[in-house]
């Protein structure tokens, strides 16, 4: 792709241009892609109404850009390198040619099942090639994919299916994860009891787990594929047609279905993949995220394939069959780029260093970090033991809502600084705001991170609830996109993300809104009220601490049993990732006179910091604070 930034001077020059003439800048980047019809207008927007239209009038199909375009020069190149959960099962090298064929066939299957442009398809699959192929097949026919991470519970799937009114679900009999087999099909069966909108389930065979086959609703994908044609002409989409919905937790209420559209998302993920990772033709790129999250969508799939890259799809976990698994994969496939989360780094750093040293990691050129702040110790461990001090680390800051990376070093170009995401990508205009709505200028300052101008990858709305989209991201600071994160800007303009400033807690890199978890806890018959906060955790970054008031009926129950029941309830409602690490039963919660829980105090208690609770004069029940401190678990 043209428009690759080669050095720091280039970066600054381009950055200035991107601010001065953003439309020209983005138009030139978009020129690197293949369009059925060029756009009339690069950008139209209104930050107050949260309306964004990029490349209006343009017509295209993203899979033509991600697959067909490479058939000329890269047909025999591996597009997807699949590494199964079990190291004894053979890896699969799926070439661009084969990917094209498999996507075309699956696209035809979907069409034959009655799926047409604009229909929503829920994909609930393990990390197997069929997951990538299903996503791309939807995009090819213009169906909107909604991938649900295969660790979510039946009720979490049902809520997502209902919210976007999905017609069809693609799932598998089961999934392998380490030494566990997860019965995906039975979870889907349970979810679908509540989802009359779904009339078909397409089933991929992976684990051979016995399943409950519902005639007339369930179909084996394998059988449908056998009879489907290999020829498929992609649906020509308008630039702003919806490409996918991906749910993310909010600090309140139900999950938000973030909507991403075709052209802007394509341009943004393709451009950032190339520049942040400085991807070269022979490189082998491994992002360890799951495709169920935005990182997987944007950088395992779209961004990588748009650049004709070889992208690794790993089904398993870092600890199976042993703690050398990541390093073994790097050695085996001569991986050049490793893009992972601080939680994974911290959990592997605590194991014996021999696991790392046993393998040859000399193929590595670039390391990436994403999803949560990376602490200094983990950064250095990654740098010393994995990168052997010769691989730049790109600490990439972004969000489901942003579609792609917004602040990050460009590998090998931007000088790195541990724990800093450093500088904005050209085209991105960050700024810091104080609580009163004023911009904080200058150096060595901390504030609420906002973005002052749209970029092509910005989400367009929350599915079915544009008001909520405006309220969440565009109300706090009129005319700006508010990220929900705090950040520090140092003396050279580098940004360091300090963490969430709302009631979202990032646990092991997963965004968890506290309110939906509290709602789940409050369903327990013995619970009267609950309040959750995040507290620092050595491996997970943050973990959840629950302060729970029991009803009288709960008081005499065994507290350990209650803790287990509460966590089971959370697992059932949301998924095991949202379980609480600590539960303290309390007689009351610190509340203001208007009934608002003072979470700041609970946060301090959960961290074990009892030194200064700040102004507690507005508390209705200040005496409760001492009591909670005494009972800390
Ligand atoms: O708090 C920030 C944190 O993750 C949030 C976004 O989560 P999600 O939408 O799930 O997307 C994760 C993958 C892009 C952000 O608001 N976050 C993400 N990357 C970083 C980060 N915090 C610090 N440093 C990062 N590099």
Describe this structure in words.
With 633 residues, this protein is α/β, with parallel strands linked by helices. It has 20 helices and 31 strands. Strands 12-11-8-6-7-14-15-24 form an 8-stranded mixed sheet, with helices on both faces. Strands 5-4-17-16-18-19-20 form a 7-stranded mixed sheet, sandwiched between helices. A 5-stranded antiparallel sheet has the order 22-21-23-25-26, with no helix packed on it. Strand 4 and strand 5 form a beta hairpin. Adenosine-5'-monophosphate-propyl ester binds at residues 248, 294-295, 369-373, 395-400, 421, 483-485, 497, 500, 506, 511.
Topology:
Blueprint: H1 8-20, H2 22-30, E1 41-46, E2 51-56, E3 59-60, H3 62-66, E4 78-83, E5 92-95, H4 96-112, E6 120-124, H5 129-141, E7 144-147, H6 154-164, E8 168-172, E9 175-177, E10 180-182, H7 184-192, E11 200-204, E12 218-220, H8 221-226, E13 237-238, E14 242-248, E15 256-261, H9 262-277, E16 284-287, H10 294-306, E17 310-314, H11 325-333, E18 337-340, H12 342-349, H13 354-357, E19 366-370, H14 376-386, E20 393-396, E21 430-433, E22 439-440, E23 445-451, E24 461-462, H15 466-473, E25 481-489, E26 495-500, E27 504-507, E28 510-513, H16 514-522, E29 527-537, E30 541-550, H17 552-555, H18 559-573, E31 582-586, H19 599-607, H20 623-630
Parallel strand pairs: 4-17, 6-7, 6-8, 7-14, 8-11, 11-12, 16-17, 16-18, 18-19, 19-20, 30-31
Antiparallel strand pairs: 1-2, 3-13, 4-5, 9-10, 14-15, 15-24, 21-22, 21-23, 23-25, 25-26, 27-28, 29-30
The structure holds adenosine-5'-monophosphate-propyl ester.
């Amino acid at each position: 792709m043209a428009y690759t930034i080669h050095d720091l001077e280039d970066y600054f020059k381009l950055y200035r241009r991107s601010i001065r003439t953003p439309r020209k800048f983005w138009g030139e980047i978009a020129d690197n892609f293949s369009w059925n019809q060029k756009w009339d207008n690069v950008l139209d927007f209104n930050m107050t109404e949260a309306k964004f239209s990029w490349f209006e009038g343009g017509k295209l199909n993203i899979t033509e850009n991600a697959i067909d375009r490479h058939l000329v020069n890269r047909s025999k190149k591996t597009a997807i390198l699949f590494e199964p959960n079990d190291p004894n099962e053979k890896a699969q090298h799926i070439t661009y040619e084969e990917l094209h064929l498999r996507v075309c066939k699956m696209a035809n299957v979907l069409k034959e099942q009655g799926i047409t442009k604009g229909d929503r398809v829920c994909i609930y699959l393990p990390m197997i090639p069929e997951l990538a192929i299903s996503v791309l097949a939807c995009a090819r026919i213009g169906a909107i994919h909604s991938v649900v991470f295969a660790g979510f519970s039946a009720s979490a799937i049902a809520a997502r299916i209902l919210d976007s009114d999905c017609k069809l679900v693609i799932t598998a009999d089961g999934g392998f994860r380490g030494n566990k087999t997860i019965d995906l099909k039975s979870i889907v069966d349970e979810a679908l009891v509540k989802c009359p909108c779904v009339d078909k389930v397409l089933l991929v065979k992976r684990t051979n787990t016995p399943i409950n086959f519902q005639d007339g609703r369930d179909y084996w994908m394998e059988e449908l594929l056998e009879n489907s044609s290999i020829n498929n002409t992609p649906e020509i989409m308008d630039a702003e047609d919806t490409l996918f919905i991906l749910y993310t937790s909010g600090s309140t209420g139900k999950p938000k279905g973030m909507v991403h559209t075709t052209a802007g998302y394509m341009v943004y993920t393709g451009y950032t993949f190339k520049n942040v990772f400085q991807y070269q033709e022979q490189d082998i790129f491994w992002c360890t995220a799951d495709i169920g999250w935005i990182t997987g969508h944007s950088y395992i799939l779209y961004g990588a394939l748009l650049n004709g890259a070889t992208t690794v799809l790993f089904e398993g976990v870092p600890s199976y069959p042993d703690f050398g698994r990541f390093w073994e994969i790097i050695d085996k496939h001569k991986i050049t780029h490793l893009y992972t989360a601080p939680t994974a780094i911290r959990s592997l750093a605590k194991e014996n260093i021999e696991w790392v040293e046993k393998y040859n990691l000399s193929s590595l050129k670039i390391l990436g970090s994403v999803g949560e702040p990376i602490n200094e110790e983990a950064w250095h461990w990654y740098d010393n033991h994995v990168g052997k001090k010769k691989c730049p680390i790109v600490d990439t800051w972004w969000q489901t809502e942003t579609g792609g990376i917004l602040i990050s070093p460009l590998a090998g170009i931007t000088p790195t600084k541990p724990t800093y995401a450093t500088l904005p990508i050209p085209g991105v205009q960050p700024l810091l705001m104080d609580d009163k709505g004023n911009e904080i200028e200058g150096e060595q300052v901390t504030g609420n991170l906002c973005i002052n101008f749209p970029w092509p990858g910005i989400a367009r709305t929350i599915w079915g609830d544009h008001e909520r989209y405006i309220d969440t991201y565009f109300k706090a600071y009129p005319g700006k996109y508010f990220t929900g994160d705090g950040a520090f800007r140092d003396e050279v303009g580098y940004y360091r993300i300090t963490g969430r400033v709302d009631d979202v807690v990032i646990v092991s890199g997963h965004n968890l809104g506290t309110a939906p978890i509290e709602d789940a806890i409050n369903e327990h018959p013995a619970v009267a009220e609950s309040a959750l906060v995040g507290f620092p955790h050595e491996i997970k970054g943050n973990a959840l601490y629950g302060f729970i008031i029991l009803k009288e009926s709960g008081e005499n129950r065994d507290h350990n049993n209650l803790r287990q029941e509460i966590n089971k309830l959370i697992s059932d409602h949301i998924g095991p990732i949202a379980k609480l690490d600590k539960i303290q039963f309390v007689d009351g919660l610190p509340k203001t006179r208007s009934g608002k829980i003072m979470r700041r105090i609970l946060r301090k208690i959960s961290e074990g910091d009892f030194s200064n609770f700040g102004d507690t004069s507005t508390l209705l029940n200040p005496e409760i604070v001492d009591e909670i401190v005494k009972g800390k678990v």
